[in-house]
Fold:
Amino acid sequence: MKELDLHGIFHGQVHKELDRFFAKSSFPVIIITGQSRRMKELVSQIALKYGLLTRQSISNPGRLIVYEN
Structure:
């Protein structure tokens, strides 16, 4: 599964990073957010704009899995 690590990315840059990543990915993918609740919210909101869903990784709460409905 393809991964994007958002450590070190400012909240204001997340949309741009995900736009680029989603454009060249097949789903599901893993987005590494760390423990930041705000980062997880941003990723989930942006994924919804693409018609995608998110869920927290069971084995690692610092990751979101983005997948198609």
Q: What stands out?
A: The longest helix spans residues 37-49.
